[in-house]
Specification:
Length: 407
């Protein structure tokens, strides 16, 4: 009876883990085997083709929600305003939340709009809502009431190339209402920063590039995002948690708005480089994932009845086990079951192998040897931090968890 119970638990745990492994392995294979990119899955359902307009210079509102970001914000904004794009067609607004007066003074000397709200409880969603309220009331440092076509969301540490808006404009001209740019690491100063950057590239491959390859929407990532201004204005006030990117995804997919991923438009993001910040960042992400899952589940019956595959896929994503934890779980269970029963362990070794293959295929070729195999010793400590985070998750908590930048 005892071994029968253990066997049932083993099978149930294996099935739960196998679902996550199968998902990431499927899309890792798609990323290398399915070369042709499908522009829009709704094209198959409705017969509509995206418009191909001649080049227009759309107008862009660039928002920098900046909470306690004194070290990086001035540099990021200064570099952005040097865009090779008609100056009259974009405007930068910084939402300065809990930043020093010296930083605000430097920002006020730049040709941008500086908002300085006072929130009892800060969040990125509140900062964006505040900015849109001010924009709509005409409180910008430009002549007349602004009429923007698109809004771009950037983090305070994000740095972009001078051609960023020009390249983005070419994509917007095709008719997309939601675009996720390629966020990539701008620092690799230690093992943690390297692994954080590699983790992001794996996510880019599985949840963005591979999804677009077969016509599914890309996942959003929190910054480097571009939205149709009218859509954003009408939906930003529906955000209520610290996982604003997942909320935006849900709103887009409920409305069947396709999310385009642009791998060639880079947004350079500063990766965390110490264990404390890594733990804070992952706690925020894991909390947002659990909150998103519970928010999406009630809409699944309608998504199934309306064949909203993007929404169904997004819900499945929220139930997946984090990739680094998959490595540890499958390896630990493989070793344990080898001791308990060699026959029982075979299925776990297959999962461990599948996980390794998926992560290897999803890692860009130029990063495989240098980044993964050279830094792998840092992984156990980081995974342990993620395990500790599970004990801290409160799905009802909406407080903003700030990840600071190292000095």
């Amino acid at each position: 009876m005892f071994w029968h119970t253990i066997h049932i638990i083993d099978i149930l745990l294996w099935l739960l883990t196998a679902c996550s492994v199968a998902y990431i392995l499927l899309f890792a294979l798609v990323s290398i085997l399915w070369k042709k990119r499908v522009s829009d899955f709704t094209m198959f359902l409705t017969g509509k083709v995206l418009s191909m307009r001649k080049k227009d210079y759309f107008s862009y509102l660039i928002l920098y929600p900046a909470y306690n970001e004194d070290r990086v914000i001035v540099n990021s904004v200064t570099k952005f305003i040097s865009q090779y794009y008609p100056y009259k067609n974009f405007h930068v607004a910084v939402i300065s939340d809990h930043m020093q007066s010296e930083t605000n003074q430097k920002l006020s000397e730049l040709p941008i709009t500086l908002f300085q709200p006072v929130f009892e409880k800060s969040s990125k969603a509140k900062a964006m809502q505040y900015a849109i309220t001010k924009v709509e009331s005409g409180e910008l440092n430009i002549d007349g009431k602004p009429d923007f076509d698109y809004v771009v969301i950037l983090d305070a540490d994000n740095v972009v190339e001078p051609q960023f808006l020009d390249r983005l404009n070419e994509v917007c001209a095709k008719g997309y209402k939601a675009i996720q740019c390629h966020r990539c690491a701008k620092n690799d100063d230690n093992d943690i920063a390297v692994l954080d950057g590699v983790s992001e590239e794996i996510n880019n491959t599985i949840f963005r590039k591979a999804h677009n390859r077969i016509g599914l929407s890309s996942a959003l990532i929190g910054s480097g995002m571009c939205f149709d201004y009218q859509w954003f204005k009408n939906n930003v006030f529906k955000l209520s948690t610290a996982g604003e990117d997942r909320e935006l995804e849900a709103l887009l997919l409920k409305q069947k708005v396709y999310i385009r991923y642009e791998p060639d438009i880079h947004v350079f993001d500063e990766k965390v480089s110490n264990q404390e910040n890594f733990q804070k960042q992952r706690l925020r992400w894991m909390t947002a994932q659990i909150q998103s899952l519970f928010n999406l589940l009630p809409y699944i019956p309608r998504a199934i009845s309306t064949m909203n595959l993007d929404f169904i896929d997004k819900t499945i994503q929220q139930a997946l086990i984090p990739r680094s934890m998959l490595v540890v779980i499958t390896l630990a269970m493989s070793l344990l079951m080898t001791v308990v029963s060699a026959i029982w362990s075979i299925k776990w070794w297959c999962l461990f192998l599948g996980t390794c293959i998926a992560l290897y295929l999803a890692t860009p070729k130029q990063l495989r040897k240098h980044s993964i195999f050279g830094k792998i010793l840092s992984l156990p400590k980081l995974v342990w931090k993620m395990v500790l985070n599970i004990l801290k998750i409160d799905r009802k908590n909406t407080d903003f968890i700030h990840t600071s930048h190292d000095k």
